[in-house]
Design brief:
The chain is α+β, with helices and mostly antiparallel strands and 134 residues long. The protein is 17% helix and 52% strand. It has three helices and seven strands, in the order E-H-E-E-E-H-E-E-H-E. Strands 2-3-4-7-6-5 form a six-stranded antiparallel beta barrel. The longest helix has 10 residues. The two termini are 19 Å apart. The model has no long low-confidence stretch (mean pLDDT 88).
């Protein structure tokens, strides 16, 4: 019996940015009142930052200012291959009404969750890293 072992390679920052693409679904990790929390979010990349859209009354909006982590990945468990990109940085609300209007006008950030999602949060990267397996 032959056991195949896949290699793990480190992605360059440029490869990570390509995988982040223009928009998609990822996860934001932050510290909530009871400890670490991870929430799935829709996102877009805007001038090298990650922007998510939420309601001002969510756990994310109330706790995700300051240091956060953001991750996207694509995995194929059948083939044992995949990749992940991790962005660590600082999250802050976008307070400028003109900037929020411009982000809305892009039409590419549509939250899956129902309700009024009129708060934009910006994650400014401190570090972007990634790995590929397979």
């Amino acid at each position: 019996m032959t056991i195949q072992t896949n290699t793990v390679s480190v992605l360059t920052t440029e490869e990570c940015l390509d995988l982040l693409g223009g928009s998609g679904v990822g996860r934001v990790a932050f510290v909530g009142q009871t400890g670490l929390v991870i929430h799935p979010v829709n996102y877009l990349i805007d001038h090298g930052t990650v922007v998510v859209r939420t309601s001002p009354y969510t756990l994310l909006a109330e706790n995700a200012t300051g240091q956060v982590a953001f991750e996207i990945d694509e995995l194929d468990s059948w083939l044992s291959v995949g990749w992940s990109v991790l962005v660590t940085g600082t999250c802050a609300p976008i307070d400028d009404p003109d900037e929020s209007t411009a982000l809305r006008a892009l039409g590419t950030l549509h939250p899956w969750a129902a309700g009024n999602r009129n708060l934009f949060l910006r994650i400014t990267p401190r570090e972007i890293t990634g790995r590929r397996v397979g």
